[in-house]
Specification:
238 residues; alpha/beta; Rossmann fold; two-stranded parallel sheet; 10 helices; UDP-glucosyltransferase activity; glycosyltransferase; UDP_glucos_trans
């Protein structure tokens, strides 16, 4: 509560009510300077390096994605990967149709590929922002912390995804979700008129995100304001 302000990896148009509440009601400054992933959009090497070292060669990943039709692939992220979570023979049965990446995946590189049309996510903020920046529809499966609130933003406010029906947090194991609920959610974001509406909304947000980073855009203006603020305060301290 004693902080002067907050620098946020988002863009104003994504959460205007929240930004306005923070500045006008809470009474503290906020600078929305994202989405940061878009800063590396044209650099394949940088896109593949977010976080840890990837466990798959980026060229192999891109080659596999290049072989698929636009908006035909669903990507799923898990915070911890263990071999035993896959049923026996799963990879063999899905050879060619699916690609399993064990360990750290080049997520931004994957999401920003035209073949990817759906993203099943645990609703971590970085993942959500990357999904929005890439214009990819989402299936939400929150597991802990603030993720249930982020799910509400995605499914109820922005309406750029659907949920699998998690009702409670079980931090270590996750809520019990039936396969039919997962299938229904995936169909909802990938096939039919509703899927097209969701896709149109998230792609519109992606365009707004790119505009926010351009000269004169909301994030560009906030970054300049932040630099000016820090410069003025630095001079005062001297």
């Amino acid at each position: 509560m004693r902080s002067y302000g907050v620098v946020s990896n988002t863009f104003y148009e994504l959460k205007p009510a929240s930004a306005d509440y923070f500045s006008k009601v809470v009474g503290r400054k906020i600078w929305c300077i994202g989405p940061v992933p878009l800063c590396n959009r044209e650099n394949t090497g940088k896109k593949s390096q977010r976080g840890k070292q990837s466990t798959i060669d980026e060229n192999d990943c891109l080659k596999w994605l290049d072989s698929k039709q636009p908006d035909s692939v669903v990507y799923k992220n898990k915070e911890e990967e263990k071999e035993e979570w896959l049923p026996e023979g799963f990879e063999k049965r899905n050879e060619g149709r699916g690609l399993v990446i064990r360990g750290w995946a080049p997520q931004w590189l994957i999401l920003d590929h035209e073949a990817v049309g759906g993203f099943m996510t645990h609703c971590g903020w970085n993942s959500i922002l990357e999904g929005v920046a890439a214009g990819v529809s989402m299936v939400t499966w929150p597991v802990a912390f603030e993720q249930i609130y982020i799910e509400s933003l995605v499914t109820e406010v922005l309406k750029i995804g659907t949920n699998v029906g998690v009702q409670k947090y079980v931090e270590l194991m996750g809520d019990s979700i039936h396969r039919e609920a997962i299938k229904k959610a995936l169909i909802q974001i990938m096939v039919g008129d509703e899927a097209e509406e969701i896709r149109n909304r998230v792609k519109a947000l992606a365009r707004i995100a790119r505009q926010a980073l351009k000269e004169g855009g909301s994030s560009d203006s906030d970054l300049n304001a932040l630099i000016e603020e820090l410069s003025v305060r630095s001079l005062k301290l001297k």
